[in-house]
Amino acid sequence: MEIRQFSYVSMVAECGSFTKAAARLFITQPALSNYINKLEEDLGVRLFDRSVTPVKLTYAGEQYLEYAKNGQILVEGLQRKMRDISQNQTGRLRLGFPSERIIYMLPLLLPVFQKEYSGVRIETVNGSGEHLMEALMTGGVDFVFMPVWNARKGIGQYKVSDEELVLVAAKGYLKDEDLLDRERRIFNWKRISRLPLITLEKGHVLRNCVDTLLKGTGTTANIRMESHSNMLSCRLAAQGVGVAVVPEITVGMLRDTENMEYYHLAEYPVTWEVDALYREDIYLGRLERDLLRIVRETLQSHKKKLLGSF
Fold first, then answer.
1. Do strands 91-97 and 243-247 pair parallel, antiparallel, or not at all (unpaired)?
2. pTM of the predicted model, to two decimals?
3. If you ran DSSP here, which 8-state letter would residue 98 be given?
4. What is the pLDDT of residues 93-128, one digit of tens each?
5. Coil, helix or strand for 276?
6. pLDDT at 176 over 90
C-alpha cells in the first residue's frame, strides 16, 4: 500500500466529493477519479458509493481506511526512528489546539521551538475538544494541547501546565457578603447561586468543571446565558451582565479590559491540568520529545510572569 493511496481515499471520504478532494490535493478531478478507479480494480471492491451526494464510503471502503490509517501510523513511526538515527531534524509536526488556546500558546512556543528546529514545519488544527480528539485518533494531528478532565484509553498525557480557574466580575459588582476575603480577592463559592452566571455550553471541558464544582457544594447555578467562548464570557462579565468562571490565561489575554476584576474561587487555588495528548501507540522521537519539553518550559516561564499580576 502506498501512503498516497491512503491520503487520496481519506481526502475523498472527508470531502464527500471528488472535485473538492482534488482541489485540496492539488490535482485534477479526472486524475483523482482515475487513480481511485484503478485502486478499486486492483482491490476488486468498490470503496465509494457514487450514487449518493455526498459520496460515501462503502463497507469495504470503511475497512480499507481503518487498516490504511494503522499502516500510515506505522510508516510515520518508522520515519521518526530513521530521523533520530540520521539526526536529520527536519519534517513537520501537526498540533491541535482549542480555538482560544491557540491564540495564547502558539505565539509563546513557536519562536522558541523554531530557534532549535528551524527546518521543521508546524501545522495547526483548531476546534472543539471532540473534533481535536477525533483528529488525534485518526492521525490528523500528532499532539493536542488542552485541559484534561477524564483519561481516555490509548491516549498518553504529558503535563505542560497548571492553570487556575478564577471568577470574573465587573468592578464593584460583588458585595462584601459574596467574598471570604476582599483584600486577597477570595470569592465565597457558596454564594454563586445568588449571582447570574455566564458559562460555556455543555460539552466544553470548563463547563464540566464548573458543573462539578457546583455539585460539590450542593449549589444550583443561576445561569444567565451560555457562551461558546471564554473571552466572550469574560468581557460580558466585565460589563456587568453576570459573573463568569474562566482560566487564568483568559484574564491574562484581557488583563487591560476596563472595569474587570477577578477573584480566586477558594482560599487555595482551584486549578486544572493542561496536557499534551498523543496516541500511546505512536513512537515519540527526539523532535517530539523536545517539543514537549519546550512547551512545558515556555508555559512555566510565562506563568511566573502571569502570577505577578495575580
1. unpaired
2. 0.68
3. -
4. 899 998 889 998 999 999 999 998 888 889 999 887
5. strand
6. yes
* Model confidence pLDDT, tens digit, residues 202-241: 878 888 888 888 887 777 788 999 998 999 999 999 999 9
Task: Sort strands 271-279 and 155-170 into parallel, antiparallel or unpaired.
Answer: antiparallel
Q: What is the pLDDT of residue 80?
A: 63
Percent pLDDT > 70 in the chain is 89
Query: Taking 70 as the threshold, does the pLDDT of residue 272 lie above it?
Result: yes
pLDDT of residue 47: 92
Residue among 12, 5, 25, 111 nearest 54 (CA): 12
More confident residue, 85 or 40: 40
For the chain, report the end-to-end CA distance as a whole number of angstroms: 55
Contact by Cβ (8 Å): 146, 270: no
Distance from C-alpha of 114 to C-alpha of 107, rounded to nearest angstrom: 11
Give the contacts of 224 (CB within 8 A, at least 6 positions apart).
196, 197, 198, 241, 242
The three cell numbers locating residue 54: 455526498
Cis peptide before 196 (omega within 30 of 0): no
> What does the H/E/C string look like for the chain?
CCHHHHHHHHHHHHHCCHHHHHHHHCCCHHHHHHHHHHHHHHHCCCCEECCCCCCEECHHHHHHHHHHHHHHHHHHHHHHHHHHHHCCCCEEEEEEECHHHHHHHHHHHHHHHHHHCCCEEEEEEECCHHHHHHHHHCCCCCEEEEECCCCCCCEEEEEEEEEEEEEEEECCCCCHHHEEECCCCEECHHHHHHCEEEEECCCCHHHHHHHHHHHHHCCCCEEEEEECCHHHHHHHHHCCCCEEEEEHHHHHHCCCCCCEEEEECCCCCCEEEEEEEEECCCCCCHHHHHHHHHHHHHHHHHHHHHHCCC
Cell of 40: 478499486
Alpha carbons 133 and 182: distance in angstroms, whole number? 40
